[in-house]
């Protein structure tokens, strides 16, 4: 049976709670930590390095990844390009997101990762979602695998140098149908590895959950193996990510419930706080009104009309942050005409916190409904009192995956899963 690994997508060295969770997981026997150079702009790796330095008796497997160009890496890629490095194969997606698996860029990322992790080597170094290549101009499967081949040759060299022990690929596209033009085809990767005589490709990471089950489906075009079976046949560690975030065509279903986070929600007080915030904003709006724009126009402002329908119906905490930080808070700043004082801004931050609680309830309601459906068709055992997330992850491990990565930012999440380390 496989094990649960500590997923550190959103953990940061700035958070005491994240540190507590990681230490607690390691104390409970967690044997693998997964991170990436771009997680919280490197602060995830910094936390891991700090914790392991303070607790040298812990010897977990460390997996890190590289490929994303965000945050501080945007300046780094400019510096590399100025030296005529990592110029080729750069995928320019937007001003704030680029991607590269060129050896020049991978070398820079590995160097930074080792520094943040306070290690001389990492156990596994993965190419992080190389399928971003397909968002560039005129992508082809031939060029995609040529870039992967170049990266594999580089990784073999780093194994020889001793900076990495093994390497692999983390790709959401491993589970696409084999004839999809953007698929990451493991059978083709294995052919390339044979061509270059590679010996150290040892890990494959991909999404899997109760809805996205592509890793178990027979792939057909090159035999009867599923992705999981192909991993097993070639002695590759199979690592599942996104085990509790299932994406459908229409929305996200979170395969976990959060009753403790909304059980004390007082909807009357929440509505009163919303009305208070709207009145404060309306009064401020009136101060700047002229003869053509009166206070009565406030409720017809597009931003206010949209926000009124959204503030307690948003489906995820991420969506709450996007609405508040991307739209509502900038609108407030425009109405104020200057920066708000902490006292002035507090009611609006209180309202955002309430919106977060509502989003957890909305997520949980969908999860509870899906859990019932999954139990009815036999995907989950018919048990009422155990956490949905725990039941789902135990089911994945029974399928034969080696590791299931779970984000455990809170110590209570560790408690729910410590029997699976």
UniProtKB/TrEMBL annotation:
Lineage: Bacteria, Pseudomonadati, Bdellovibrionota, Bacteriovoracia, Bacteriovoracales
CDD domains (UniProt xref): AKR_unchar (cd19099)
Keyword Oxidoreductase: yes
SUPFAM superfamilies, sorted: NAD(P)-linked oxidoreductase
Originating species: Bacteriovorax antarcticus
NADP-dependent oxidoreductase domain sequence ranges: 5-239
One Pfam match: Aldo_ket_red
Alphabetized InterPro entries for the sequence: AKR_Detox_Biosynth, NAD(P)_OxRdtase_dom_sf, NADP_OxRdtase_dom
Name of this chain's protein: Aldo/keto reductase
